[in-house]
Each structure stands twice: as structure tokens, then as C-alpha cells.
Amino acid sequence: MTHKKKPGLSGQAKLAGVIGWPVEHSRSPRLHGYWLETNEIDGAYVPLAVPPQEFEHVLRTLPALGFKGVNITVPHKEEALRIVDEATALARRIGAVNTVIVREDGSLLGDNTDAFGFIENLRKSAPAWDPTAAPAAVLGAGGAARAVIAALLEAGVPEIRLYNRTFARATELAAFDPARVKALPWEMRSDQLADIGLLVNTTTLGMGDGSLPLSLETLSPEALVTDIVYVPLETPLLRAARERGNPVVDGLGMLIHQARPGFEAWFGLAPVPTEALRDMLLADIQEIKA
Ligand code: ATR
Question: Which atom of ligand 1 is the closest one to the Cα of 144?
């Protein structure tokens, strides 16, 4: 770490970024930029808009460009898993890479930090929640759900009830751990909520003007409710849960925590998730919406 008394970057600045197509909606440049600035690190984190047909070439060129690594976002996460030289067991299990680290020898290590971001957000925001105490219900079986299920299984959740509009996707995901993950029909999503300790929405319902994805009538009043969507910050599900007195955790923390392992690997410093950072991201989200 060098103190940035002079403007701009030095010739030794550490480089990282996020690759997506499109990439303009990514909040990662602001997030990492905030940590770079507040820690006065001689480094840059840039948005890289790369179309699918260029993705492999760009990823393989990163070591030659001197990049320490990158985040990967939509639509490249699955393709990144295929391209990297080595992937962590967790990334392989989830089937997607969101963090790439360029190693000393120039090879690419692929990891997935979404599961860490999800569970760390719950642990930090709802320390009273005991993952091993009760079943969890998960709505959705897309890419985000894969990371959520991997995280919940790792945390020791005894049973996961998985509901998805397309039942076949839920069945496929239940194969993660057939003894603990039960694929259930989407129509049943409001029926078995009385004994759960955690309810997670990973579907895109609730984004923008979306509506409440299920009825909370029978939900235990102690159950923790979380949504991985963070625009709006308070989704219809979180609002309904809060209004009936359930503890709730919004999705912005997942974004922040999933960024921590990459930042530490690329820039050599463990970043601290502060309220000021959260406020900055919130203001940014509100500005984009306005
Ligand atoms: P992500 O990677 O963000 O999880 P995704 O893979 O496209 O995105 O998954 C989106 C999830 O939202 C899926 O579970 C999807 O259900 P299907 O598998 O049936 O497509 C769910 N979803 C999206 N729109 C929905 C809707 N109108 N009703 C119910 N589920 C919906």
C-alpha cells in the first residue's frame, strides 16, 4: 500500500475490474473504488464491457495485461468456470465463477464468493439466527439460488424446501444434497411456512414494481426473511414481513460481502464493510432510479 499523495495512479498500480455484458449497471466499480480510495491504495478497479464472443480471449489476456484478477457478472459466470485453469470446489459445485484471481505463475483461479456473501450478510445482520435450528424455505432455482443453497447446506441447515416455477430446475438443484433439499411445486410455496427459521427469495419477483411472491399468513413470527434483490432495497416481501414483525435482512449486504475476498486477494488488504459504504451504495442506487 502506498499513500496516494500525487494524482492518479503510479506505474505499479494494481489492476482489477468487473467483466460483464452489459456492465454499466454493476455497482462493483463504486464498491471497490470506495475501498481503494478510503484505504489510499495505488490501484484501480474498472468496468469491462465484453461481449460473449470476446470473453474467453479477454479473460486469457488478463495476466499479460498485469491484472491481479476480475469479478465476472452476467452473462459470463458459467463460461468463466469452463475457461479458468483451476476452480475451487465451491465454484464447481455452484457451476459458476464470480471471482478470478491471477496467480503468480499467470494461471487463472476461479472462485465463487456469492455463497460467502449471502451467509455473511445473514450472520452480520441477524446474529441471533441459528442456521441449524429449523428448516429454511427458498424461492427460486436460478443461478443465485445455487449459491444460496450451497451456503445454507454448508452452514448446517437441516432441511431446505425449494420452490420454483419451473419444477425441473428445483429437482436439479435438489441433487446438491437429496437428503436435505426437497424440491416442491411452486403452488405450495405458501403452505409449509409455520416451522421454518428462514425464508429466502432468490427469484426476480419483487424487483422494480414486482409483487409479493407468496402469502405470509402462516409464517412463524420469529422466522428471518431475506431477499437477494436490493433494488428496491425493501422489496414487497421484506415490507410485508417487517410489517408483521418478522426480522428481515435486505440484499445489499450480500453485494458488499461477496466483494471482500476478491478485494483482499487483488489488493492485499482485507476491506471493512462500514455503514458509510452502505450509505454510498444506497445513494447510488437511488440516483440511478431517479
Ligand atoms: P439469477 O441468476 O439471478 O438467479 P435466473 O437464473 O434467471 O437469475 O433465475 C431467476 C429465478 O426467478 C428463477 O428461479 C425463475 O423461475 P424459473 O426457473 O421458472 O424461470 C424465477 N422467476 C422469474 N420470473 C418469475 C415469475 N414471474 N414467477 C415465478 N418465478 C419467476
Answer: 4
